[in-house]
């Protein structure tokens, strides 16, 4: 479980996140929604340790990781796929996967498992990542993150700017991943329908504060339509 407790963070003297608390389940999705500039990416950076937290706590599996470096959090099972599908553009798909798998005992097996989840990548193994489409790059980025065998996967707008058919494929895979068990997902997502269907819990972020939260469609006895209308009201859309 990943838990943020009253987190304040920002850039230099500018505080962007003003005391956010949220919980990501051990198995399942917590979705964060909000307009551009609300602070979603900044919140994820604070959770991963890429920016420091001014006050409040980040807990992972009950351990206080607030001051741990990003690499130490990754070693504990946190994986982060930043917004914008970053991979090594000059390396092939296969090399991008291999770079992460190197030094891991189950490296080869993990690459196989990642390719099973994203079969479209199998036909692209020799292609340079820089030549992949946005959707393919996103799949590669998630596949790379999964090779680190995370307990918690943090995804920043995985379907942004991607053609609808591939969006559906990525969404299916995210849901399938959490159903396998043993993986929590903190998902920042603009597609409210998908976010709320897949999520156990949702949070709406506005100007660095949580202005609405509740049970998502994956929570027991919840009603996704109520959640959608609550979120639309909170976001004034
Ligand atoms: N590297 C940065 N340095 C200074 N301010 C930043 C930086 N990145 C983002 N911000 C500011 O933080 C606020 C939240 O941005 P961001 O977290 O990217 O929002 P979102 O992901 O919700 O669109 C914005 O006002 C943005 O201008
Ligand atoms: Mg963002």
TrEMBL record:
Keywords: Amino-acid transport, ATP-binding, Nucleotide-binding, Transport. InterPro entries: AAA+_ATPase, ABC_transporter-like_ATP-bd, ABC_transptr_urea_ATP-bd_UrtE, BCAA_Transport_ATP-bd_LivF, P-loop_NTPase. The keyword Transmembrane does not apply. The keyword ATP-binding applies. Signal peptide: none annotated. Residues 2-232 form the ABC transporter domain. CDD domains: ABC_TM1139_LivF_branched (cd03224). SUPFAM superfamilies: P-loop containing nucleoside triphosphate hydrolases. Coiled coil: none annotated. One of its GO terms (molecular function) is ATP binding. It comes from the Bacteria. Belongs to the ABC transporter superfamily. NCBIfam families: urea_trans_UrtE. This is Urea ABC transporter ATP-binding subunit UrtE. It comes from Rhodococcus tibetensis. The gene is urtE.
């Amino acid at each position: 479980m990943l838990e943020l407790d009253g987190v304040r963070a920002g850039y230099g003297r500018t505080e962007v996140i003003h005391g956010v608390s949220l919980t990501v389940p051990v198995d399942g999705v917590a979705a964060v929604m909000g307009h551009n500039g609300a602070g979603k990416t900044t919140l994820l950076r604070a959770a991963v340790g890429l920016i420091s937290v001014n006050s409040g706590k980040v807990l992972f599996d009950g351990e206080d990781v607030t001051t741990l470096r990003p690499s130490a959090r990754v070693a504990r099972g946190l994986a982060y796929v930043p917004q914008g599908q970053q991979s090594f553009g000059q390396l092939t798909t296969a090399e991008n996967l291999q770079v992460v798998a190197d030094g891991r005992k189950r490296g080869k097996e993990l690459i196989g498992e990642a390719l099973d989840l994203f079969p479209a990548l199998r036909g692209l193994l020799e292609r340079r990542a820089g030549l992949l489409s946005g959707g393919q790059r996103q799949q590669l980025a998630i596949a790379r993150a999964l090779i680190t065998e995370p307990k918690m996967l943090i995804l920043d707008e995985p379907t942004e700017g991607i053609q609808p058919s591939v969006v559906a494929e990525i969404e299916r895979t995210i849901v399938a991943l959490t159903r396998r068990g043993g993986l929590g997902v903190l998902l920042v997502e603009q597609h409210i329908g998908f976010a709320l269907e897949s999520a156990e819990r949702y949070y709406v972020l506005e100007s660095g504060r949580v202005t609405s939260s509740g049970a998502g469609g994956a929570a027991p006895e919840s009603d996704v339509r109520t959640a959608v209308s609550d979120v639309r009201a909170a976001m004034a859309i």
